[in-house]
Amino acid sequence: MEKYFDINYLWGAIPQLAPFLWITLVVAALAVIFGSLLGLVIAVFKLSKSKILQFLANVYITIMRCTPSVVLLFLVYYGVPAFADYFFGIYLQDVETGVFVVITFSLQFAAMMAEVIRSAYQAIDKGQYEAAVSVGLTPFQAYRRIIFPQAFIVALPNFGNGLIAVLQEGALAYTIGFIDIVGKANLIIANNFNTHAFEIYIALAVFYWILSVAIEKFFGLLEKMFSKGQRSLKTS
Amino acid sequence: MDSSFINIEFLIDTFFVALSGVPIALLVTVVSMAIALPIGFFLALTRINEIPVLNWFTKVYVSFVRGTPVIIQIFVLYSVIPLILTGIFEKYKIDYPIYEINPLWYAFVIFSFNTAAILVEVFRSALKTVNQGQLEAAYSVGLTTAQSYRRIIIPQMLVTAMPNLCTATINLIKATSLGYAISLQEITLKAKVAANVGYNYLEAYIDIFIVYMILCMIVEYLFKLFEKRLSRYKYATA
């Protein structure tokens, strides 16, 4: 009788999956870059004095928080080409699925980042800016040299959590036919005639687990490194 | 492809199809929460009190759940539970067709497994905000451990835990959208199946999106009300 659990499938899957880890990571990295930029814009909206801009930012953040990733993914995947085709007559059906994946997770990450940036900015005492300006720095210099380095440390742990979240949500990209590490795992299982799915999924889980723990540890270290100066400043 | 951007008629019809999936989504959410709350709380206690083996077990369990995507947890559990059940059924000579188990049962197990780990962290951080002196004071007036937790610690802890519990609940509702992977008849799957006939996927996903939006807002509102009720003593006596 065949064994239910065969560890050889697990070992066999790891070298097959490893090359596709890069695709997962590249997608996450692109989403982080675009998402952070968009998130910065939304955070500026939210912090602005205009009620309309604040409202827009709040609506955006609420929508993103309430929509499951898989639904957002399909909305972008079907919605963006249909929208572009109907309103602008641009044909987008042949665009790589990866583009839609990056768009989706950038949108989602932006909502997370907007809150992270806002809370980090608000955590810095207003007097810091005033003090900087009063010693003759321009507003831009004050932000760059005084506000940003402090807000950065406050934002760091939340940024790390957001990074892990976007990496994990990215696992859903396979649903629109994107071949990343999860898509490859499903292909391997299909090649095995749907047997020994368990071993392959375990390998997949281990990849994600190691990655998440590594990111968490890395950000913990970064935080320690950057907040060194912070403490000595406080005590002096 | 027809010329119109959105098929309004289909949009409205499918909205009700999507809505008909809400009871299942809510059932899974409520049952999983009901299972996960006590488990999460007791595992959080093992972490706080540093109970030797359980503490370590909880650490690994929480790390695993937080370190892997929900969809992968569904994949893993959905493939391992039948294996375990086959073993058990063969051993005890139970004649039950494993592949006919209602996916609802899998959903309960999978989502409780996931949520319990999230709640461990929620409760752990909330318990830490309650002053140690509260427990000592409760002991010194003669309450037992169970009494002091029920009457002194938990009511205070719940106030701080509420926002995180709300987030956990919303995440759970969102996660039920992944029930399609185990062919659970919830919101996403129902609307998607309706869209299969005429390839109206965009409309179907707009419907699903609206339904989740409504659900999410109702839940947030309810939690806000509940939080207000729980914290009614907090500021009155200060």
Automatic annotation (TrEMBL), chain A:
A GO CC term attached to the entry: ATP-binding cassette (ABC) transporter complex
Please state every residue range assigned to the domain named ABC transmembrane type-1: 21-219
Which residue positions does the secretion signal occupy?
none
Alphabetized CDD domains for the sequence: TM_PBP2 (cd06261)
Q: Does the keyword Metal-binding apply?
A: no
Mind listing the UniProt keywords for this protein, alphabetically? Amino-acid transport, Cell membrane, Membrane, Transmembrane, Transmembrane helix, Transport
Q: Which residues cross the membrane?
A: 20-45, 57-78, 98-117, 146-167, 200-222
Record GO biological process: amino acid transport
Keyword Ion transport found: no
Its placement in the membrane is given as: Multi-pass membrane protein
Q: One short Pfam family name for this protein?
A: BPD_transp_1
Q: Name one GO molecular function term.
A: transmembrane transporter activity
> Which InterPro entries is this protein grouped with?
AA_ABC_transptr_permease_3TM, ArtM/GltK/GlnP/TcyL/YhdX-like, MetI-like, MetI-like_sf
Cell compartment(s), UniProt: Cell membrane
Q: Which SUPFAM superfamilies match?
A: MetI-like (SSF161098)
> What NCBIfam families does the record tag this protein with?
HEQRo_perm_3TM
What protein family is recorded?
Answer: Belongs to the binding-protein-dependent transport system permease family.
- From the Swiss-Prot or TrEMBL record, give the protein name: Amino acid ABC transporter membrane protein 1 (PAAT family)
Automatic annotation (TrEMBL), chain B:
Q: Where in the cell is it found?
A: Cell membrane
The ABC transmembrane type-1 domain sits at: 22-223
Report the family membership.
Belongs to the binding-protein-dependent transport system permease family.
**InterPro entries in the record, alphabetically?**
AA_ABC_transptr_permease_3TM, ArtM/GltK/GlnP/TcyL/YhdX-like, MetI-like, MetI-like_sf
Q: Which SUPFAM superfamilies match?
A: MetI-like (SSF161098)
Record's keyword annotation contains Transmembrane? yes
Q: Which PROSITE patterns match?
A: ABC_TM1
Q: Which GO terms describe its biological process?
A: amino acid transport
Sorted alphabetically, which CDD domains does this protein's record hold? TM_PBP2
| GO MF annotation terms | transmembrane transporter activity
Per its record, how is this protein called by name?
Amino acid ABC transporter membrane protein 2 (PAAT family)
- Gene Ontology cellular component annotations, sorted alphabetically: ATP-binding cassette (ABC) transporter complex
Q: Which UniProt keywords apply?
A: Amino-acid transport, Cell membrane, Membrane, Transmembrane, Transmembrane helix, Transport
Task: Report the membrane topology from the UniProt record.
Answer: Multi-pass membrane protein
**One Pfam family linked to the record:** BPD_transp_1
Asked whether the UniProt record includes Oxidoreductase among its keywords, one would answer no
Transmembrane segments annotated in the record for this chain: 15-43, 64-85, 105-123, 157-182, 202-223
Q: Which domain of life is it from?
A: Bacteria
Question: Which species is listed as the source?
Answer: Ureibacillus xyleni
* Coiled coil stretches, renumbered: none
